[in-house]
User: Fold this.
Amino acid sequence: MSTATILSGPLSWYRAANEGVSTDTFRDGELVPETPYRVCSLLARGGMGQLFEVENESLGRRCVLKTVHPGEAAVSTAPARLRQEANILASLPASIAPIVFDLRELPDGRPYFVMERLEGGDLRKELRRFEELSVRAAIRIVLKLLAALSVVHDSGIVHRDVKLENVFLTSGGELKLLDFGAAFRDDSTLRKTGCGVAIGTRRTMAPEQHQALDTDARTDLYGVGLVLYELVVGSGPFDEFRGNETTLALAHLHLPPPAPSARAKQPLSPAVERVILKALEKRPADRYWSAGEMAVALERAGLGWDDADEPTDIDMWLEPA
Assistant:
């Protein structure tokens, strides 16, 4: 399920971009069958599933429930992917991913899982607030992101949908990765989605994803490069092609990204620019080999930037990675 429409809540994790849309699964105020969860609101619906804010009536705790559309249960890999997502999240430290409380089936056989409701906002929201972040803040955020991805990759997991909307800054000062619906484990039968099937978000897919080729940790580092580019520039390198999926894919496959220093409204050192452009290489073999390697390069490139610009609210919030 894509998270393009489900994030950027002002205080809570999820906010519906399609509020008021009816659903065939649950209605507001309805008790989820054979569970203690009462539906508060539909947060989002995507191609394969739905997200609801629910309250555990036994504990009085608000949570987020994710399930698949009724029509997807028997005709797609959506149920298997949802179960895999829940198991991946449950296997990761609570410091880098939402906590999963439960994984069960509805009476009609559809799986669902329940996870914590986070307080804070995603990077898309933060970018809207500040238009562009200071170079210092962008580097510190991305170092935290790379630290989280290092744990993910060391666990044999590739996220495959790293983007601003899936990087969440909690009110407690943590960075958490969201939406592992496109992720896979090394030992997963869902590693390949089928011939010619591209998995991820079109705007932020790596070239190998647009071609439905094998993906690995370097695919996620392409996403990190896009995140860092957008944080310092305020827009993505190929946003001008967003209205045409074919042209957008061709841009990711063949066009060199415009130099971020030429687009940024603030000074950007050649060293930081080199880190961004290396992460955005078309061939995975030309990118960084690991999140740790990219983190070392970015940390070195960012030396001296702590004193280069005035601190902002988000600088004050961030702790050293």
Remarks:
- Confidence is low (pLDDT under 50) at residues 1-23.
- The radius of gyration is 19 Å.
- The first helix runs from residue 78 to 91.
